[in-house]
Each structure stands twice: as structure tokens, then as C-alpha cells.
What we know:
Elements: H1 2-6, H2 22-52, E1 55-56, E2 66-67, H3 71-78, H4 81-112, H5 119-127, H6 134-144, H7 151-157, H8 174-198, H9 203-211, H10 216-227, H11 229-244, H12 248-253, H13 265-275, H14 279-304
Antiparallel strand pairs: 1-2
Helix pairs in contact: 2-14, 4-8, 4-11, 8-11, 13-14
Amino acid sequence: MAQAAAVAKPPAPPRRRRTSATPRRLPYLLIAPAALLMLGFIAYPVISVFYYSLQNYNPTKPWRNGYAGFDNFVHAFTEDPVFWDTLTFSAKWVLVEVSLQLLFGLALALIVNQTFVGRALGRALVFSPWAVSGVLTSAIWVLLYNSQTGITRYLADVGIGSYGTSWLSDTSTVFPAAIVADLWRGVPFFAILILADLQSVSKDLYEAAEVDGAGRLQQFWHITLPHLKDAIVLSTLLRAVWEFNNVDLLYTLTGGGPAGETTTLPLYIANTSVDAHNFGYASALTTVAFVILLFCSMVYLRLSKFGREAK
């Protein structure tokens, strides 16, 4: 008995602690209310637009409301010349604006990336227009283009042009005037993104290129530009979508005029829904614009090989 009692009992195996799945799910549970709220705010308008695009819906003419099928889309493509005019102008507006904004934004980014006295102040001045809202930007340029107190009066004082000239009411000058106004606010966007990417370019690459006898232009073409490829692709895509949907600046500057010369497709949609109360047809036009933007974005990303290194 004594010997049996003296024999030490083997220690019991440690009890396996049950791990709870709650800590792993906790982050998802915490963000779930905000995610569901955002999904509701995004999903409901999108679904409602698709639904009303198949309806005849005009609150001022309720006797005509009802299911329309694809009649709204057929009318847009075959019977509405304004749709094609606004779509053509939208493409022209996006192409000119994005190209010029990219060109001037790249130039500004290269300038403020250099070391010079007052560089911090120069960067602040370059980036400041991007902090101004679209409506305030429009108000500033409406005052600048005012025929009585704006640029045209001072130009007339020095013998350029005539008094009372309004660039925003002349079909030959309204497009360049609107382009300049939007450039003032859009160029800093490209400058900010491109400058941020320029900061990550290794100086050793430029030093090695100088040793090999490469000039400034060759360094820009073979080092800077390939490094900026993804930043340029992303910024141009984002800006193209924003410019296509630009309503506030053109509406405040010209209202789509004169004679519909500056009416983009989104502005035409806004006029159709808000002014004409034809929400069914406006929803169909919105669906068409959505499909166009989605298709063009996918093709652009595919052709530009975004996110893939050039061979």
C-alpha cells in the first residue's frame, strides 16, 4: 500500500480551452451597421433608377404612368436627337478637359517637385483651387466673365474686344470659357496625385542615368513616365467619370446654353427630371449613362494594363 501510494500519479493532460469565434467576428459586427446603412443608401437609388427606367412616370401626368418596357430606351436611341447631341458634347468635354488637366497637372507636379525657395508656399497656391467647392468655383468665374465688371471690360479698356461682350452667351467663345473655368479647379487634382507618386521615385535611378549620359528628356521618358503610369491611368479615369457627370459648373455658368451648346448628358437628365418631371425617361437616360461609363472604364483599364508592370 505504501509503495503504491508513493508512486506519483501522472499529471492530468491540460484541458483544451475552447476558443470563441466572437473575437474574430467582432470587427465585422462593429462595421456591419455602417456597411448596411451605406448599402441601403447606394442600393436603393440604383435599383429605383433601373425600375423607373422601365416605367412611364411623370407626377404631373399620372394618367400616362405605367409599365413602358424598353420604350424609353428606344425613344432615346431612335427618336431623341437631343440625346445624341448631349452625348457627343459630353465626350468632347471629357476628352478636352481631361487631356488639358493632365498636361498642366503633370507640368505643375514636375515644377513643385523641384527644390527652390518658397516651395511650400508654391505647393499651397497650386493645390488651393482643389479645396474650393464646385458651386463656389462657378460663382467666381461667373463674376470674372461678367460683361460689366469682369475680364472683358478690362480687355476692352486696353483695346481688346468691345464693351458689353459676354463670353458665356456667345456660341463661339462659351466652350473655351467653360474649359478654362474647369481647368482652374481640375488641374490641382492631377498635380496632387502625380506629385505624391513622384516622391517615391528613387534618386539613384536619375543619378545612374546621368552617369550613362541620359539627358533630362530621356530621364523623363524612360524613368519618370513609366513610374507614373498607374497614377496617370487612375487619375485620368477618375477625372473622366467626374467630368462626364459634371453638372454644377456648367449649370451655374451657362445653364446648358447658349442654344444648348454646353448641355452635357447629365445636365440633360437633370433638366428632363427636375424641369420636365419626366422621371421615367430621365431614369432610362441615367441607365444608359451608367452602362456607357462602366463599359468605357473596363475597356480603358484593360487597354492601359493598370496595375501591371510594363515589359
